[in-house]
Amino acid sequence: MPRTNLNDILIFMAVVDAGSFIAGGQAMGLSRSAAGKAVIRLEDRLGARLLNRTTRTLSLTDEGRMFYERGLQILASVDEAEASVAGQNSTPRGVLRLTVPDAFGRLVMLPLLEKYLRAWPDIQVEVSFTDRPIDIDKEGFDLAIRISATTTLDTRLVSRVIASYKARLCASPSYLAERGEPGDIDDIAAHDCLIFASRNQRQGWRFRGEGGPWVKAQGRSRLRLDSLEAIRDAALAGLGIALLPDFLVADDLVAGRLRQVLPGLETDDAKIVALYPDKRLLDPRVRRFIDLMVEELGDQGQARNRDASSG
């Protein structure tokens, strides 16, 4: 089956963005008639109506909305491919506006920012340390770093997994001495669970025994917090059981300030995800910072850092 004319897809996207055949055609250097014929060819090729047309308005059909969203993904991939080539020799300049989770930002990202600023002297960085959901475009950020195990990711954005950290179910020795230690997943129901929650988002816990299915924990949640570091502090204070990533509790576990609960259970990894607008060409300052995160925090970077700390 012959491939669809890519130019017809671009014209369809322009018509949708502009809201009319006239403006969409002008954006592509075409007449209203030529833009309309391109969309009709595309609909005929796909065997589906993409636009509902009236004398005054255009609206997407369900099929049209699906096709438009896939088109956005394709255009974003093309932009990223071009940027990866064109930006290889570009020197990062200007201001990188970045939003990062509070605890992860201060513990992990600040050392990276020090390396980044040292490598690129023409760069300035503005950072917002927050765990709350962010509208990147509305609030003027170039890049958001989020932990996917604690937040629902914005599907309008391009997401790239940078690193993964093991999550540990843990509690203070004083809490376990008072309340007892869970023997299995069902026992968690009798315990106070310290849950990450922000606005309408709430962290869910699920676990899997060796060779078994994933099972959701049914613990009580009397205290819900919108900061991973606050959850760690609450766990240290003996207020309940917490599910937290390695980078935040590794030292506490080694020092005995926290104890791992049900260590034989598998948990969801805490994935560190970079988010950026899907229609924006990545500026060299953004791309270079993402590259640095992958180099330092990705699997090879974590292994290198472990070897260095043990040597």
From TrEMBL:
Gene3D superfamilies referenced in this protein's UniProt entry, alphabetically: 3.40.190.290, Winged helix-like DNA-binding domain superfamily/Winged helix DNA-binding domain
Molecular-function annotations in GO: DNA-binding transcription factor activity; sequence-specific DNA binding
Keyword Transcription: yes
GO biological process, alphabetically ordered: DNA-templated transcription
Pfam families found in the cross-reference section: HTH_1 (PF00126), LysR_substrate (PF03466)
Segments forming domain HTH lysR-type: 4-61
UniProt KW Transcription keyword: yes
InterPro entries recorded: LysR-type_TF_proteobact-type (IPR058163), LysR_HTH_N (IPR000847), LysR_subst-bd (IPR005119), WH-like_DNA-bd_sf (IPR036388), WH_DNA-bd_sf (IPR036390)
Keywords: DNA-binding, Transcription, Transcription regulation
CDD domains per record: PBP2_CrgA_like
Described purpose of this protein according to its UniProt entry: Transcriptional regulator of the ttuABCDE tartrate utilization operon.
Annotated family: Belongs to the LysR transcriptional regulatory family.
Protein known as: HTH-type transcriptional regulator TtuA
Species whose genome carries this gene: Rhizobium leguminosarum
Organism lineage: Bacteria, Pseudomonadati, Pseudomonadota, Alphaproteobacteria, Hyphomicrobiales
